[in-house]
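Input chain follows. Return structure tokens only.
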Amino acid sequence: MSNYYNGYTNKTYIMKSAILFFTTIFLTLQINAQHLQLVIPEQVGMDALKLLQADNIIKEAIDSKEIPGAVLAVVKDGRMAYLKAYGYKQTYPSVIPMDVNTVFDLASLTKPVATAISAMILVERGQLRLLDKVNLFIPSFQGWTDKDGTKDIRVIDLMTHTSGLPAYGPVAQMLKCRGANNPDKMIDYIATIKREFEPQTDFRYSCLNYITLQRIIEIISKQSLQFFAKQNIFDVLGMSHTDYLPTGETLKRTAPTSRLKGGNVLKGVVHDHLARIMNLGVSGNAGLFSDANDLAILVAALQNNGEYNGKRILSPLAVKTMRTVPRATHNIGRTPGWDIFTPYASNNGDLFGPNTYGHAGFTGTSIVIDPDNNTSVILLTNSVHLSDGGSIVRLRSLVANIVAASIK
């Protein structure tokens, strides 16, 4: 009887503590006027106690030096079901606690969030086709050539990483290429570098794909990718702390990434070398900065067929196209902008539905969206801030599984 009573009281205590925790967070965020409506998990069919298990997993990763800190956001049915900060956003040269408003270097999350959505907007406007040849916009851009002839590389090949372009490129070699500035030199390099395989026959995750896509967007729109994405995506949705080259309050909120020789750290300056050196901070592959609150708005819009709070960035069919693997490369698992089942998709976890799509960034960022359960997981860290560059591949999957298991 005593054991039963103790077990009952412990469970009651845990439940009361959980309710108190979510109520406190709810009131705090409502006072701070966050964009998404914050709700107690049960209001959107999620188990609060199960969600709390993510805290232990993330704290273990901090204790084992995988990450210095993190921000976790869970969006369900267009509302914020969970938002919490852990650990520290900076550990060197001074220690600064993490908070939910911390801005992160998104690294490769730039590809879907800025570049791919921008490309789809141009598709909707009739200015671009996914089947357009790249050399229609960049005449010097070469296709795949073998004994059987030449096969052109198309926009869809860039977006699904099936173009055959190498994964990356050496800055020193690019600087020797033709062009009036570094971005031009990089495009000149990409246009003629040896292709690794025939388009649509294999998969190679490549930053060069999205740098090329950036150039196409800029040629068509006659605007920089920074301005186009801000005007057509971030400003429309009210994502006030999402941009390239952060300044002002956004810069103050930014978590640092790598330590540099001499003791300084990168803060508000993109970590990726090609984005930083060759594209001067504004790049199709990396360079975007954002926080969990802004990204929650974006995923809420995608969960709602491209619209949030009466503001639309994409049509329902464009959103569906972005999360659908093309027929020509159905066995590869990459969509125009996102990942469903390539080896890079482990952050999707094991329990979400088969249509789940997501993306991750080298600095320690990731997004997972399950359209069937109308649930998204945003996990933001700056793992590269640690001297040994902690790995969070496993952590992403564990957190995704906990969130998925919490859906009633």
